[in-house]
Request: fold
Amino acid sequence: MLDWIKDRLRRRPTVPVVRLAGVIAAGNILGVRGLSVETVAPLLARAFAMRGAKAVALAINSPGGSPVQSALIAQRIRLLAREKNLPVIAFVEDVAASGGYWLACAADEIIVDPASIVGSIGVISSGFGFKDLMSKLGVERRVHTSGERKSMLDPFREERPEDVERLKRLQAEIHDGFKDWVRERRGTRLKGDDALLFSGEFWTGRRGLDLGLADSIGELRTVLQQRYGAKVRLPLIAPRRSLLARFGLGGSLEQIAPAALAAVEERTYWQRFGL
Reply:
């Protein structure tokens, strides 16, 4: 009886769904890990190795993060898609912006909700300056380096124009790589001039469709049932988290303050898009 059930399941078309949700970053705080090639690669391997798979779906909900991790994850998706000869379909939920859109472009097709946020094809760096606060507290900052450019954008010192220029050069290089990736993956589907598309602006899914940043509007289950039949299997492949981690527990007292700061920083990623 068990063999019969397994055989019936194998005969049903299958589209594994890999959930890519959260900020893209390496790291692990209180059991909550960012999207990185380390955390995502095992999920992708399981999805692409699934017997009977007709395609692989990506459920994306990410405001972005590390450009390096975005590129590594996207490269892994394309590598597996070529090896297994499977189409990849990205479904954007609330947001696929910046690095999140980088991931979406790894798919052969991008499907959005009319109210999804897509785009933000740019690079951003942010921080704080505490120079005046330090002087008010009577605290002196002492930094000693070997190499005249070792220290850059020290938040406790006056911002130097040459440091800002160096940062902008780095950002421009990363931005060029992002633009090249979008052009490679979206090609002639892009509509609109580069000045607009690559300005860092973001749009709703409906507007993104007009600009060629997405291919159609739809919802994951509905679209996949229409394409592969009402009985298509959609096994969800997502990282496993411990019970304590789900409730924000399980860390030592020494971890709580860094975790709180990390949570605030993560929240700023989402707030950029009104979420």
Observations:
- The chain has one domain: 2-122+186-271.
- The CA atoms of residues 29 and 259 lie 6 Å apart.
- The chain has eleven helices and ten strands.
